[in-house]
Design a protein that fits this description.
The structure is a single chain. The chain is elongated and about 60 Å long. The chain is built from five helices and four strands, in the order βββααβααα. It is an alpha+beta fold. A hairpin with a 7-residue loop joins strand 1 and strand 2. Helix 3 packs antiparallel against helix 4. The protein has one domain. Strands 1-2-3-4 form a four-stranded antiparallel β-sheet. Keywords: Membrane, Transmembrane, Transmembrane helix.
Length: 173
């Protein structure tokens, strides 16, 4: 089942959800977003803070070729972790809902605006990642390696919201 996200509701104080459609069957689905506990964010914040304190001023002692291999492996790990987190932590149960044709069109129109914003954020994230990668390979700073991997992680999560089917769907509409 190839579901295309057409609209996401992210209003503060409300249950967040995403509306999907299946283009082949013309059925619509709704997935509520999982709510995370605040302790996870605080634990991550202090963990990252401790890591950054430990990495402050450190340089990678490797030459260029092993550094490129290490960087590539860490990018792969970051990519797979971002996919796991997105698929297992963002959406809850996906349920079929009955929407009229007009409601679907309204959701598509509203979602197109959100899609353009998400596309621009992904492009900016990728360009920032490339710039940080170049700076990292010039300085070999561990803290830059960490920031580059974090930015790549965020970029990969933003790509999860932009599957090829969604891009093609909005191009055809």
């Amino acid at each position: 089942m190839d579901l295309i996200p057409i609209y996401t509701e992210n209003k503060k104080g409300r249950q967040q959800y995403t509306i999907f459609i299946n283009k082949e069957s013309n059925r619509s689905y709704k997935a509520f977003h999982r709510e995370e506990d605040q302790w996870l964010y605080w634990a991550s914040f202090f963990g990252v803070l401790a890591l950054l304190r430990g990495l402050q001023g450190m340089q990678t002692p490797l030459s260029l070729i092993p550094n490129i291999l290490l960087f590539t492996v860490l990018l792969g790990v970051s990519f797979f972790i971002s996919r796991l987190i997105y698929t297992h932590r963002v959406y809850g149960e996906v349920r079929e809902i009955n929407l009229t044709k007009q409601m679907i069109e309204d959701y598509i129109d509203e979602g197109k605006r959100i899609y353009k914003l998400e596309l621009w954020l992904a492009i900016i994230g990728f360009i920032s990642f490339l710039i940080l990668t170049i700076i990292y390979f010039l300085t070999l700073s561990m803290i830059l390696l960490f920031f580059t991997l974090f930015l790549f992680f965020i970029f990969c999560i933003s790509l999860q919201r932009l599957p090829i089917t969604r891009v093609n769907f909005y191009r055809s509409n």
